[in-house]
Amino acid sequence: MRGLSLLLAALLLTGCSAAPQASSSAPAASSAPADEAVSSVVEPEPQPVPEPEPGPLAGMIVCLDPGHGITDAHAQEPISPLSDETKAAYVSGASGEQITEEALNLQVALGLRDKLLALDAQVILTRETNEATVSNIERAQIANEAGATCCIRIHADGIDDRSVHGVSVLIPAGELLGTPSIVQPSRTLGQLMVDAVAAQTDAKNRGLTERRDLTGFNWSEVPCVLLEMGFLSNPDEESRMIDPAYQQQIIEGVAQALIQWRAQSS
User: Fold this and answer.
1) What is the overall mean pLDDT for the chain?
2) The whole model's pTM is what?
3) Each residue of 108-157: pLDDT tens digit?
4) Contacts of 264 by beta carbon, 8 Å cutoff, 6+ apart
5) How would you write the chain as a 3-class SS string?
6) How far apart are the C-alpha atoms of 46 and 196, rounded to whole Å?
7) Closest to 120 in 3D by CA, of 64, 65, 62
8) Residue 64 in contact with residue 126, Cβ under 8 Å?
9) What whole-number distance in Å separates Cα of residue 227 and Cα of residue 250?
């Protein structure tokens, strides 16, 4: 009996063994819901780019007329729409020891074009090469047909007396003007220009000169001035005028005059 009791006890102990433990390798349950949305980065709204401020000459149309040009053409043309008197349509300019006038005029005109474009003006040139066949009437008509705000004729002087020097501005006057209304605005611009260029370059200020005999003035329908930058017949002044730094001073003076003239006309 005792043996039977021991066998029953062993069987009871085997049936009461502990339940198996869960495997430690089983994946852990997620603590977040399966359908939880993933947050996204919100891009900032693009900011509008402000419009640049217009330049001081915005809206102006400036015609630059570099005087003279190399041509074999010869012709006469009426000095004025009000007269039968004629003058040469193509005229050679002055010459110095280092440069001819048509070349100097174009150098300054091209630099002035770049300056005025930077100030937001629209710029028209009557010629862009030294070889050019453009009559004096045609030069005026280019500005007229463009509806230019003004025309600036760029020249250099020459005279037998090599000691004469300085900057001056010629302005329209007289009974042969086809458009007399250009007289006063041309005078105002001319005075501002000769003063500004003389101040920038420290050249002698020779002031304004009225001209009744210039075809380009008499045919012009827009305010028009002629800048005489200096004398190629004066060796010292010629050397200054071919210096790019001095040319830039001339350009700054012209631009300054246009800004002042624009402000006064507003």
Assistant:
1) 89
2) 0.82
3) 999 999 999 999 999 999 999 999 999 999 999 999 999 999 999 999 99
4) 188
5) CHHHHHHHHHHHHHHCCCCCCCCCCCCCCCCCCCCCCCCCCCCCCCCCCCCCCCCCCCCCEEEEEECCCECCCCCEEECCCCCCCEEECCCCCCECCCCEHHHHHHHHHHHHHHHHHHCCCEEEECCCCCECCCCHHHHHHHHHHCCCCEEEEEEEECCCCCCCCCEEEEEECCCCCCCHHHHHHHHHHHHHHHHHHHHHHCCCEEEEEEECCCHHHHCCCCCEEEEEEEECCCHHHHHHHCCHHHHHHHHHHHHHHHHHHHHHHC
6) 45
7) 62
8) yes
9) 10
Residue positions counted in the chain:
266
Q: Could you read off the pLDDT of 201-242 as tens digits, one per residue?
A: 999 999 999 999 999 999 999 999 999 999 999 999 999 999
Tokens of 126: 């009557």
Contact indicator for 205, 198 with CB cutoff of 8 Å: yes
The greatest distance separating any two alpha carbons of the chain, rounded to the nearest whole angstrom, comes to: 162
CA separation, residue 200 to residues 4, 61, 107, 225 (Å): 133, 24, 18, 18
The whole-angstrom separation of Cα 113 and Cα 251 is: 9
For 112, list phi and psi in degrees, rounded to 5. Answer: -65, -40
Q: Which tens digit of pLDDT belongs to each residue from 157-197?
A: 999 999 999 999 999 999 999 999 999 999 999 999 999 99
Asked whether the beta carbons of 198 and 252 are under 8 A apart, the reply is no
Q: Could you tell me whether strands 167-172 and 86-88 are parallel, antiparallel, or unpaired per DSSP bridges?
A: unpaired
- Tell me if 190 sits within 8 A of 169, measured CB to CB: yes
Neighbours of 263 (CB within 10 A): 9
- By the 10 Å C-beta count (0-12 exposed, 13-18 middle, 19+ buried), 141 is classed as middle
